[in-house]
Design brief:
By secondary structure, the protein is of the alpha/beta class. It is 46% helix and 22% strand. The strands form 4 sheets. It has an 8-stranded mixed β-barrel, surrounded by 5 helices. Strands 2-1-5-4-3 form a 5-stranded antiparallel β-sheet, sandwiched between helices. Strand 18, helix 17 and strand 19 form a beta-alpha-beta unit. Helix 11 crosses helix 12. The chain is elongated, with a radius of gyration of 41 Å. The protein binds ligand C2E and magnesium ion (MG) (2 copies). Ligand C2E binds next to strand 14, helix 12, helix 13 and strand 18.
Length: 573
């Protein structure tokens, strides 16, 4: 009896435990976001659990009801779904398939698992159905972000580089050409600064969608950054294909872009082109080469196309090398000043000298200032270089001046960047006072390029300099704007007629007429004229005859190193 009672108690306890467990599993199923289909192989029975009713508006009692399920999903997913549902084979991992629903833009995931007995006979199967739409959309967005640029919808830089690398690999195999175009909107900063970045963005979008129209299997386009796009063309005809694309771009750019704010914008682009295998052999190098020539297009006045070639690469590499050496040159004292004498045309007496900088690069080679000054102007090295020229020139002049009875004029070339800096005038005055040189014995040579700056600011500074007695001359006259009318407004003392005039003044009638009118006009303004680059006696005689005041050039003397200039001064003293 006791034994029986014990068995009953045990059974009751087991039952209680089982119902607690069953309740627990049911709750888990109910609170999960998934629907479950349970199949018992032994009883051939289907049980639906979890969120079935909120996923489907039908129930499945036996296998023939499955047709409803297949009807729900898009055609390509029917077969994989069937495989999952009838899964019996032993598998290490769950079998999974994703299905897009026919009517709603929603995704379901079906995950199946079969459980076997010890002999390997299938016993139970669970199919778990989950809504993965949100996850899919997020994934799509991430994929989009990985490949595309959100502003323009074009490929982004990273993906473009991958595709371009693939082009290059294919071209290597098939011995073909890949052209890379770097396309930059001209004067984009003006649009951004003047009309705001929203308008700027819209322009970038519109140009981008125009470029996108040209994309195809063999033409890929990306938005590199800001207002720069990159296009790669896989094409055996190379420059011919580029020519056609360029024509289409030109045609589009000849018409305005209509923006949503009602503005009409006319714009142009500068293009640089590099080619595989001619210019470079990797995607990044090709983009780099196209960039170099794109900037060359900008320098050449924008709205043009430039092709990369070997001389351009060499010039570029040389510039980079020079740029690095220039930065060191200031500290390694590898600059030197030469002095070129200037003579009065009338009595052939020495008027003074122009200080001209000389530089020996790392290998001891003399580099022309015409080459390195523009580089120094670009990388800012001109500021310390200019300061050094000013101090060294004045220091040397002061020494020479001690042995001379008459005053002379020391001409110093000044770059626009140097001139425009605050404190420039004070710096010069400081140097003059340190070496006790009279301001009237110093002449600053500026060029017309300075007039790109704010005209009022430029002239105010000129007036300030002249109020201290410092002289100012306009160098290389005739190579820039060459306008005589603005000369009247410029408070200067001297005008230097550029060598290019002097070169042809004897042989070319038109040059003669212009030179004569410049000199007579300048005289009426009360300015002095200097002719530079005078190499022949004939030139000197002619210039003297038409009223040019001062002569500088190889005919009278080349730029001289310090000792030789000193010897010349000693002879004259
Ligand atoms: P620039 O100021 O117009 O100087 C005149 C240039 O013509 C000098 O070239 C001079 O050597 C050269 N020259 C003078 N007479 C003759 C001649 O009869 N025939 C020929 N063929 N050439 C002649 P350089 O010294 O090579 O200087 C070139 C330019 O570099 C200068 O043109 C000037 O713009 C710039 N530069 C030189 N030194 C400095 C400097 O210290 N600071 C700045 N900012 N620029 C400088
Ligand atoms: Mg000069
Ligand atoms: Mg000059």
């Amino acid at each position: 009896m006791n034994e029986l009672r014990y068995q009953v108690d045990l059974l009751t306890a087991k039952n209680q435990k089982l119902s607690v467990q069953e309740k627990m599993y049911r709750l888990v199923c109910e609170t999960s976001y998934s629907a479950f289909l349970y199949y018992s192989f032994e009883k051939s029975e289907i049980t639906l659990l979890g969120k079935w009713d909120s996923f489907f508006d039908f129930r499945i009692k036996d296998w023939k009801d499955l047709g409803r399920l297949y009807e729900m999903v898009d055609e390509p997913y029917v077969e994989p779904l069937r495989e999952i549902i009838f899964l019996e084979k032993k598998q290490e991992q769950d079998a999974v398939t994703e299905c897009m629903l026919r009517e709603r833009r929603a995704w379901l995931e079906f995950r199946a698992k079969v459980f076997y007995d010890e002999e390997g006979v299938p016993q139970d199967k669970i199919i778990c159905v989950s809504d993965i739409t949100k996850f899919k959309l997020q994934n799509e967005e991430l994929t989009y972000m990985a490949y595309y640029d959100s502003l323009t919808g074009l490929y982004n830089r990273n993906y473009f580089v991958r595709l371009l690398s693939e082009f290059v690999r294919r071209a290597q195999e098939e011995r073909e050409i890949v052209s890379v175009l770097l396309i930059d909107i001209d004067d984009f900063r003006k649009v951004n600064d003047g009309l705001g970045i929203i308008v700027g963005d819209e322009l970038v979008q519109q140009v981008g969608s125009f470029l996108k129209e040209m994309s195809s299997e063999d033409i890929i386009v990306c938005h590199l950054n800001s207002d720069i796009y990159c296009m790669a063309i896989y094409d055996p005809t190379g420059q011919k294909a580029v020519g056609k694309i360029h024509e289409r771009i030109q045609e589009r750019m000849s018409k305005p872009f209509h923006l949503s704010g009602g503005q009409e914008l006319n714009t142009t682009v500068s293009i640089g082109v590099a080619e595989y295998p001619e210019s470079a052999s990797t995607a990044l190098e090709l983009i780099g080469c196209a960039e170099i020539v794109m900037y060359k297009s900008k320098d050449m006045g924008k709205n043009t196309i430039q092709y990369f070639d070997t001389p351009i690469l060499n010039a570029f590499l040389q510039n980079v090398q020079l740029e690095n050496q220039l930065k060191d040159a200031i500290y390694s004292h590898s600059f030197e000043l030469y002095y070129q004498p200037q003579y009065y045309a009338g009595n052939k007496r020495l008027r003074g000298m122009e200080a001209l900088i000389r530089w020996r690069d790392g290998s001891g080679r003399m580099v022309s200032p015409a080459v390195f000054i523009p580089i120094a102007e670009q990388n800012g090295a001109i500021v310390p270089i200019g300061r050094w020229v000013m101090e060294e020139g004045v220091r040397q002049y002061a020494k020479w001046r001690q042995n001379q009875d008459n005053s002379m004029v020391l001409s110093i070339n000044v770059s626009a960047i140097q001139y425009m800096r605050d404190g420039f005038v004070d710096e010069l005055l400081q140097v003059l006072s340190t070496y006790q040189v009279h301001p009237q014995e110093v002449e600053l040579e500026i060029t017309e390029s300075i007039l790109i700056e704010d005209f009022e600011k430029v002239t105010a500074k000129l007036r300030s300099l002249r109020s201290y007695g410092i002289r100012v001359s306009l160098d290389d006259f005739g190579t820039g704007f060459s306008s005589l009318s603005y000369l009247k407004k410029l408070p200067i003392d001297t005008l230097k007629i550029d060598k290019s005039f002097i070169d042809t003044v004897l042989s070319d009638g038109a040059t003669r007429v212009i030179t004569e009118s410049i000199i007579s006009m300048v005289r009426t303004l009360g300015l002095e004229t200097i002719a530079e680059g005078v190499e022949q006696e004939q030139q000197y005689k002619y210039l003297h005859a038409i009223g040019c005041d001062i002569i500088q050039g190889y005919y009278f003397g080349r730029p001289l190193p310090v000792q030789e200039m000193e010897a010349l001064l000693d002879k004259l003293a």
